[in-house]
Write a structure and sequence with these properties.
The chain is mainly α and 506 residues long. The chain contains 21 helices and 7 strands. The chain has a 5-stranded parallel beta sheet, with helices on both faces. The protein has a two-stranded antiparallel ribbon with strand order 6-7. 47% of the residues are buried. The protein binds flavin-adenine dinucleotide (FAD), ligand DLZ and iron/sulfur cluster (SF4).
Length: 506
């Protein structure tokens, strides 16, 4: 009996559970570029091109290894994954599909309801299974990442001396998060010239998705495992040593700082999270990188990445609709590239359009912070992030946006809202020096909008946050301001929001 083996666009890993369970000699791998996946949100063209090119190359690699692959190019078959499976089951006389669980409830449900029998296997490219995460979460009042991370260190043995963490500490963040340096001595991610397969996909994406937000060219992403590994080795050597120290810094003319850009490759399956962490651990063992860089990075992968996925699957399909702060403002046009005088926003959004990438602090403390302060509908914010970043899939994007960034899940992920005035951005970036607004001005003409909106946010959510032990004390500062000043701040913030809502350049 023939089985079909479904391999989705973000499952491009030879170690995939569905491939492991199948037989190379009798079963048929099914891969498909389909309109439903390519357009359930209007993804950045670079993201679609990256996935289609990587899918085509992975299919060729599987064929070279002896698999039979039934590959459907965009427009040459059904518009949905289930439709493709039904056609393939009919054509090949198969009545079962082996699949690895997709990273999105929408697709999990679609496979459950597909008329062909689909067996969904656990995605064991992750370190923690759903059961393990549930076991850890059960009975805890607060699901704090740090404790989960320690369990993952113990489980993987990464940077461990027996039962104790290497160097004696679990976390070296006190050495991290310095303000931006004068200059950067890392030229950024490795860039690959499009080969014939990539060029063919670029032309297809240009034709079909050319009108979506985002620049397709220049296109330089790695699109196969070999290239992704070259990129990783390059970054471990040149970028990792300063990764921790400048992890939170932002610079006007440095889009990537010392960041790894590996999220893109790990999430699609081109790199395995453990191989990435082992490469980083080895660089530290060899004495090539300091402990704060290696530990800080490994924490992002086996801590944050795994924890975020655990929350997505624990919280269920309604998570993306949560709106704990009742925010309803529409996403303003400046998120789609309309002019803005806020230098930090215009730089973060321009690089998002050009690269389909922004680093964590740009996502959290610039575009995310602004959306939260301005009270934008979290679902619209979620859709924006899912569309514009090449590494975005719902399992990882939604908890970061709905939970960490927009505090819309009522505080499951974040113990306080990630909001700040312009002061934080000023401290951690060089944006403010070339901004039309003045970060030191709290009110009046030219006052930084983050300064105004910060108090507007705190004031309108006083009931929720006054008793929060991490942020509640800030109300003491607010209460000490005289009434006239408070009134000026609130009315200027409101005037700013009104102008933004009216489509004026702010
Ligand atoms: P680096 O800074 O080099 O970090 C290394 C790796 O650690 C990342 O590649 C990633 O795999 C992992 N990591 C670090 N932080 C997180 C985190 N909070 N959640 C999950 N993994 C993490 N990450 C995505 O992969 N896809 C998304 O769609 C996504 N959306 C985000 C939206 C918001 C609002 C925020 C605040 C964060 C989001 N993140 C997302 C997490 C993080 O910003 C990105 O993983 C990171 O910026 C990717 O760039 P990098 O590979 O250069 O990461
Ligand atoms: C994101 C994406 C896109 C753009 N296109 C495809 C596709 O044509 N075929 C496919 O198998 N997968 C695609 N994907 C990835 C899926 O959307 C992804 O598997 C789910 O969102 C679950 O993470
Ligand atoms: Fe952003 Fe305010 Fe700084 Fe301008 S002054 S770059 S708006 S933080």
């Amino acid at each position: 009996m023939v089985d079909l083996v479904l391999v989705l666009g973000d499952q491009l890993s030879p170690e995939l559970s569905a491939l492991q369970k199948a037989s190379k000699s009798t079963d048929i791998v099914v891969m498909a570029e389909v309109a439903d996946e390519a357009s359930y949100v209007a993804h950045h063209p670079k993201k679609i091109a990256f996935l289609f090119a990587s899918m085509r190359k992975f299919a060729a690699q599987l064929r070279a290894e002896g698999w039979t692959v039934d590959y459907t190019k965009l427009g040459e078959g059904s518009d949905s994954i289930c439709g493709v499976l039904m056609r393939a089951a009919d054509e090949h006389g198969a009545n079962r599909v082996l699949a690895t669980e997709p990273g999105e409830w929408r697709l999990i449900e679609a496979l459950r309801h597909c008329p062909v029998t689909v067996e969904q296997l656990p995605d064991d490219r992750f370190i923690a299974s759903h059961k393990e995460f549930e076991g850890w979460a059960e009975g805890r009042k607060a699901l704090r990442m740090e404790y989960f991370y320690r369990d993952m260190r113990r489980k993987t043995g990464l940077m461990m001396d027996g039962d104790t963490p290497a160097g004696g500490q679990w976390n070296y963040d006190e050495d991290n998060r310095k303000p931006p340096p004068e200059g950067i001595d890392f030229a950024g991610p490795m860039r690959f010239t499009p080969d014939e397969t990539v060029e063919e996909v670029l032309q297809l994406v240009e034709r079909r998705f050319g009108n979506s937000f985002g620049d397709l060219r220049p296109f330089w992403f790695a699109t196969d495992r070999g290239q992704a590994r070259q990129h990783l080795a390059h970054w471990v050597k040149k970028g990792l040593p300063d990764f921790g120290t400048y992890q939170d810094a932002m610079m006007d003319d440095e889009r990537f700082m010392y960041h790894s850009i590996v999220g893109l490759y790990i999430n699609a399956g081109l790199l395995n999270p453990m191989e990435v962490c082992k490469a980083v651990e080895k660089a530290w063992q060899d004495g090539d990188v300091p402990i704060n860089a290696a530990e800080g990075f490994i924490r992002q992968i086996i801590g944050w990445r795994e924890y975020i996925r655990g929350i997505y699957f624990r919280e269920g399909p309604d998570y993306i609709h949560r709106n704990g702060l009742d925010h309803t403002r529409d996403l303003p046009g400046l998120y789609w590239g309309d002019a803005t005088d806020m230098r930090c926003m215009s730089r973060a959004i321009a690089q998002t359009k050009e690269e389909a990438y922004a680093h964590h602090i740009q996502r959290l403390m610039v575009t995310g912070n602004f959306a939260l302060l301005a009270g934008i509908d979290p679902f619209q914010v979620h859709e924006w992030y899912l569309r514009v970043y090449a590494d975005a899939y719902e399992w990882v994007e939604a908890p970061n946006v709905i939970g960490m960034s927009q505090f819309a899940d009522g505080g499951i992920i974040a113990s306080k809202p990630y909001v700040s005035s312009g002061n934080y951005i000023h401290k951690m970036s060089d944006y403010c020096g070339s901004c039309a607004y003045s970060v030191t001005k709290k009110t009046g003409k030219g006052a930084c909008p983050f300064n105004l909106l910060y108090w507007h946010f705190m004031d309108r959510h006083r009931e929720k946050f006054a008793s929060n032990n991490r942020i509640g004390r800030i109300y003491g500062t607010w209460d000490r301001m005289d009434d006239a000043k408070k009134e000026t701040i609130l009315s200027e913030a409101q005037a700013f929001l009104d102008r933004m809502d009216a489509g004026e350049t702010v």
